[in-house]
Amino acid sequence: MTNVELSGVSRWYGNVVAVNNVTMSLGPGVTGLLGPNGAGKTTLLHMMAGFLAPSRGTVTLDGEPTWRNPAVYRRLGLVTEREAAYDFLTAYEFVLASARLHRLPQPEAAARRVLDLVELTSAEDRRIGTYSKGMRQRARVAAALVHDPEVLLLDEPFNGMDPRQRMHMMDLLHSLGDAGRTILFSSHILEEVEQVSGTVQVIVSGRLAASGDFRTIRRLMTNRPHVFAIRSTDDRRLAVALMAEPSVNGVELDRDGLTVRAGDYGSFTRALPKIALASGIRVRRLLPSDESLESVFSYLVEA
Amino acid sequence: MTTVAWITARGLFGRRRFLLLFPLPLLVVGLAVLARWAGVAASEWVPPVIVGLGLAVMLPVTALIVGTGVLGSEIDDGTLLHILTKPLPRWQIILPKLAVAAGVTALTVAVPLYVSGVLAQGVRFGLALAVASALGALTYVAIFLVLSLVTRRPVLLGLVYVLIWEGLLSSLLSSTGVLSVQQYVLTVADRVAPTSLLTPTVSLPVALALSVVLTVGGTVLAIDRLRSFSAAGETS
Q1: Is 3.40.50.300 the CATH number for A4-212?
Q2: Strand, coil or helix: what is A3?
Q3: Which residue of A has its CA nearest to B86?
Q4: What is the pLDDT of residues A43-71, one digit of tens each?
Q5: Which of A36, A35, A159, A140 is nearest to A87 (CA)?
Q6: CB distance A86–B85 less than 8 Å?
Q7: Where are the domains of chain A?
Q8: Which residues on chain A are in Cβ contact (under 8 Å) with B81?
Q9: Which of A62, A187, B73, B169 has the fewest C-beta atoms lying within 10 Å of its C-beta?
Q10: What is the pLDDT of residues A274-286, one digit of tens each?
Q11: Cα-based torsion angle of the residue sequence B153, B99, B106, B183 in order, rounded to the nearest 10 degrees
């Protein structure tokens, strides 16, 4: 059982704060690190993997610091976001070299095992330079898994993968998590995280915005106040009628129509058609106006 | 260690910039053969061809291409992380890379220098040039290797050292020769095969001592910098 612990971790570059006072603990199973682009996910992963010193706070793997401590790589694997691989090697040579650098007792057998695990056996004798994005990614995952690490960190592992490869990678991460490995992967796509992990750490603007069970966070996201832009045949009368509805927190009337702030997505969207019908008003347009992932994230920061 | 050396060598020969190593040695040998064939006196062509082109340009430029190639290229394209995510003490990464770089550089420059030395004054002069340039290759490579880790522009900085410090300043101020690898090479070659064709400005003990200091110092610094290697993300 291996834990990655971050305690009060900050990282800044000059005046720019990339990661701000993050404390989290990662245990066995699959955890998703979710956040919009530029939130600090890569910085956080690099600090966990020992490739960046925290400006403040500590990052440890079972109590040992990861910075300036190559011994942690016996138990830790990293798949970076950059697609870099040795293009001039075949996947087999590449993974075998990783096995040898880990001083595994049977490097050939270990290389074959992980290449089979990522389903790359049929292409293992081709140069990595000839691979598609998804295949390169799998070769890199194989190299990171060759020593069967207790902790695997992956930065945006699903980028550039087709749906089948994505499914396969998700299954792989699941089975590793079920086998008691500590798996952390970053993503800026909600659905990816939803499909792979039960536990999620949401990071926004360098801060840990939410953390815990995905379903709880999902509910928090759906139950947050929503803003809708509405146009109808009679905006003023609709505004009056809407104010009587308990799920509506506020209505604004201007030339472009109504801006409605609803406390709860579900009850409001169910109530609106009934109110319109009862008042004899026709709704011409209904637009949820803040559905971007960023707004969801920033709501979580405030919550 | 052998795996690191193997990947390094494959990376060096697998990249296109490897082809940049061939023109200068060919030019040196070509000019030497031409001078010899045309019957030019050795004292006329050795200073410009062997010293001016061979030792002052071919040796440092080759060391620069190879020395920054074995580490700098891997830092640039991010492949270095594959080696760094292994539980290896960092000296086990730097030393094989240094050995491959020094070996390739030495071989690339020693052969044409030996050939042109033989053509100029016989086997002993050829051997002296080969030995001295191999020592110089090690020192240059150690400097350029650590440059890859302390700056993002190792090639530019290396060129500034070779062209401005060793090339321009040493012709104006002889005291800069104390910190010029090129002068150490001249001193060692002149000692192995004393000749009037070379005019070193540094004494042998100074040349040897500073070569060792630069090589060892560069290597130790490189190992320490690699311990604190920070990855740059594409997004922060």
Answers
A1: yes
A2: coil
A3: A73
A4: 999 999 999 999 999 999 999 999 999 99
A5: A140
A6: no
A7: 4-212, 223-302
A8: 51, 78, 80, 84
A9: A62
A10: 999 999 999 999 8
A11: 60
